[in-house]
Specification:
Length: 368
Amino acid sequence: MTAADSLRPSPLARIRSDVQAMHAYAVQDAAGLVKLDAMENPHTLPPALRAALGQRLGEVAVNRYPGPNVDQLKRALHDYAQPPEGWSLMLGNGSDELISLLAMACDIPGASIVAPVPGFVMYAMSAQLQGLAFHGVPLTADFALDEAAMVAAIAQHQPAILYLAYPNNPTGTLWNAGVIERLIAAQGAQGGLVVMDEAYQPFATRSWIDHVRAAPEKHGHVLIMRTLSKFGLAGVRIGYMLGDAALIAEIDKVRPPYNISVLNAECALFAIEHADVFAAQALDIQAQRALIIEALGKLPAVTAYPSQGNMILARVPDAQKVFDGMKARRVLIKNVSKMHPLLDNCVRLTVGTADENAQMLAALEASL
C-alpha cells in the first residue's frame, strides 16, 4: 500500500453508521445436522412430482423477462386464498420483501410501526432500514397480546402499520380473536394499516381471512400476508399479500419490476396445482407437533408452550447448554433466549419428520 492509498478516505464512510452497527441476519450452518432451526417443511415432493416439476421447469423460457406465468400465479393464489370481492394481491420475493416494501410505501415523515414483541425480527429491521420508528409492545408472560398496552401504543404513536402475526413467531401463539378485532378497529380509527402475517397459516386451525369474508366493511385497512415458504417451498421465495384492490395498487408501485423469477413462479404454480399433496404434509406436521408437545410434557425440566405453527417454543433450565448439547448430538435447533427477556432460556424446535423428531427429542433429553 502506498502513502497515497493510506490517506484515501474509506468507502465504508459512505455506508450509514446505523447499518454498520447492525448485525446481519444470521443463517446457521446445518451441514451434517438434522436441521430443525428454521421452520421449514421437512417433506420433499414425491419422486413422480419431482420428475414432473423438473420437466416443466425445463420448458420455461428463461431468456425472457417474467410475464405470463407470474400473472397466472397471481390468479391461482387469488383463487386459492378466496378473498372477498374487491380484493387483489401482490407478489414478493418471500414475505421479507413485502415487509420491506410496506415500510418503503409508508415512509412518511414521522411514520412508525408497532408490533408485539417477541415477534418476527424483520418488522423492526425493515423499519430501521427505511428510517421509520419501531415500537415493540411486550406480550404477557404467557405470550398473549397485552390489549391495554397495544391500544395505548396505537393511541400514542398513531402507527402507519400494525403487525399482528397469526400465529406468532417464535411463540406459535394464535392470539384471541376478540382482542385482534378491537386492535383492528383502533388502528382503523386513526387511519393506519393492519398487516395480519399468516406465514404459518398451513398449520393453524384458523385464518383471519374468514373474519375478512364475514365483515369486509371492517377490513378495508387490513392486509393478509402469506408465504409459500412454510407451505413447502422455502427455497422458492414466494410471498403474497392480499387486500383492498385500491390499497394493493398503491403499495405495488414500490415493487421492483420482475421481482419474481419465471422459475420461482412456475414452481409455485406447480405447487398450487398439487395443493392436496402439501395439505397432507401439513396435516402430518400438525400430528407430529402434538406428539412432540406430549413428549415434552413428560420432561420435568421443560415447559412447552401451545403452538399453532410448525415450531414449538420450550423453556429449559439452560438454553445455551441445551443448544450446544443438541448440536454436539447432530441436531440443530434455534436458541432464542437472547431475542427478548420474555424468552429467557427458551429454545425453538421446528417440527420435522417422525424420524427427525425422535432424534431431536432424544438429543434434547440427553442435553438437559
